[in-house]
Amino acid sequence: MKALILFYSVYGHIFEMAKAVEEGVHDAGLTAVLRKAPETLPDKVLEAIGGLEPRKRWADVPDVTIEDLIDADAIIIGSPTRFGGMCGQIRSFLDSTGGLFAKGSLIGKVGAFFTSSNTQHGGQESTILTSIPYFLHHGMVFTGLPYSFDAQTTVEEIAGGSPYGASTIAGGDGSRRPTRIDLDGARFLGQHVGKIATKLRGDA
Ligand SMILES: Cc1cc2nc3c(=O)[nH]c(=O)nc-3n(C[C@H](O)[C@H](O)[C@H](O)COP(=O)(O)O)c2cc1C
After folding, report:
1. Averaged over 46-51, what is the pLDDT?
2. Which of 199, 178, 202 is nearest to 23 (CA)?
3. Model's pTM, two decimal places?
4. Residue 17 Cα, ligand 1 centroid: separation in angstroms?
5. What is the distance between the alpha carbons of residues 154 and 160, in angstroms, rounded to a whole number?
6. 85 lines ligand 1 (CB under 6 A)
7. 7 pLDDT exceeds 60?
8. Residue 138: what pLDDT?
9. Mean of the pLDDT values across residues 55-70?
10. Is the CB of 84 under 6 A from ligand 1?
11. What residue ranges in the chain does DSSP mark as E strands?
12. Which mutation among 15, 55, 56, 82 tests ligand 1's pocket best, with the greatest number of atoms within 8 A of CB?
């Protein structure tokens, strides 16, 4: 069985979270297929926002294709928060999946979402919650990050993660990296999705 991890990242937070999701998927016994959303910003803009250098770390990850979605038993999407919602690069790719919708190709697959934002209350929950209609319109089974990942309840330190999905907080200037709790949450999400996809197929 396969889980597609589709991500977009400028400064690497979502890439690091995607790698942790990949580990979780692998732990659950599925093949993890890591893919990135095609870039839509011109290099000039990326250069202006300091986004050309970090992406060298994931330059060898292939761009996602429609076939990647068809082949997957589960689809886990990671996007930075943009004005309280998902980024245009992910949205743009998802908007190219009307043909799959028409054929019902994604019905019954498991879906989940993870995100990153600069500030603690800068829209992580709204980003994940507003992704849910995409999965449901395709007839998919959306899963969040259950409270059995209990580190999400901590008030001892700033931590990402909510019942809606995994997340991390990059800090006002973007210099904060995903913490152990954030990465554990991403790993847990990958495992959780993997287990549910396996149960749905009846192999559990
Ligand atoms: C156009 C734009 C809009 C953004 N909107 C928000 C926002 O609504 N809330 C927030 O906390 N951070 C916002 N950010 C910060 C990004 O979420 C942050 O850079 C990202 O989470 C870092 O992830 P990455 O390293 O994977 O790119 C925005 C950044 C950009 C460039």
Report:
1. 97
2. 178
3. 0.98
4. 15
5. 10
6. no
7. yes
8. 98
9. 98
10. yes
11. 2-7, 31-36, 74-80, 110-117, 141-142, 166-169
12. 82
